[in-house]
């Protein structure tokens, strides 16, 4: 597979996304740094600290350092989520001693290193970590890197939502994020029963959105191109609702009420319980 055939290209977007983040953080007042966010117990500053953690872990991994191993066995997905949540909470609590100004400086410095590491990655090599929320035990680097992009995107969007300063729900920056999230649809629908040949169309409205098609086969569900026939179910969401659905930023029923589902309603409702983050 040539580089231009990589399904979702995100490597070139990291510097731009980081630039948007730094510009945003530099514009915040002291009050805005402490505003609550959709990330449950985290403030704006806590999310910025979490983004710094992500940068530093990637840089450390590139230096062949992975830190202490888990203190308890990781036997399943739930164990992994609990372990990661513990790491995140410890880091965020410690970083509350750090000033917003220093956080920005550290994010700028590590962001450049992070982007350079991603730019040198072999996109077709095995990834260091699988994309577990898509049901994969092994992943290819381009998908792992796209997952990393969704992390940076949705956390920045959580900050923007909290302070009322939009700016990244664009075709250039949003579409690769939502396209990556959609890769988790077959796994999310793995227990959903339907006749072989059933098609679900998911539409994200607006210039930043698009259409995705989920097909039921004898072996399970799979993403496919437009079949040309009328879908059994059509789900239409706005970009603002879509990113929140996949990151546990909105109650499923609220999201369903804010969207449009036609055809087989039961098939459509399952999408609103999908999570494309480690949660």
Automatic annotation (TrEMBL):
InterPro entries tied to this protein: DinB/YfiT-like, MDMPI_metal-binding, SCP2_sterol-bd_dom, SCP2_sterol-bd_dom_sf
Mycothiol-dependent maleylpyruvate isomerase metal-binding domain sequence ranges: 18-159
GO terms of molecular function: metal ion binding
Superkingdom field: Bacteria
Name the record gives this protein: Mycothiol-dependent maleylpyruvate isomerase metal-binding domain-containing protein
Residue span(s) of domain SCP2: 189-273
């Amino acid at each position: 597979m040539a580089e231009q055939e990589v399904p979702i290209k995100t490597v070139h977007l990291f510097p731009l996304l980081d630039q948007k983040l730094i510009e945003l953080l530099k514009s915040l007042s002291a009050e805005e740094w402490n505003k609550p966010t959709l990330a449950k117990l985290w403030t704006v500053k806590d999310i910025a600290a979490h983004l710094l953690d992500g940068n530093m872990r990637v840089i450390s991994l590139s230096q062949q350092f992975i830190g202490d191993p888990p203190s308890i066995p990781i036997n399943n997905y739930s164990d992994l989520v609990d372990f990661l949540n513990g790491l995140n909470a410890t880091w965020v609590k410690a970083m509350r001693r750090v000033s917003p100004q220093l956080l920005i400086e550290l994010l700028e410095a590590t962001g450049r290193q992070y982007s350079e590491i991603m730019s040198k990655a072999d996109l077709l090599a095995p990834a260091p970590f699988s994309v577990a929320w898509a049901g994969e035990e092994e992943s290819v680097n381009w998908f792992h890197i796209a997952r990393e992009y969704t992390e940076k995107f949705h956390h920045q969007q959580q900050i923007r939502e909290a302070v009322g300063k939009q700016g990244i729900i664009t075709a250039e920056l949003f579409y690769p994020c939502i396209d990556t999230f959609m890769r988790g649809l077959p796994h999310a629908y793995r227990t959903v029963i339907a006749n072989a040949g059933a098609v679900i169309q998911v539409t994200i409205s607006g210039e930043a959105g698009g259409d995705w098609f989920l097909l039921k086969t004898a072996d399970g569900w799979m993403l496919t191109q437009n079949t040309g026939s009328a879908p059994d179910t059509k789900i239409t969401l706005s970009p603002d609702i879509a990113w929140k659905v996949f990151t546990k930023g909105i109650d499923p029923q609220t999201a369903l009420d804010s969207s449009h589902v036609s055809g087989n309603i039961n098939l459509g409702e399952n999408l609103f319980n999908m999570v494309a983050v480690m949660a």
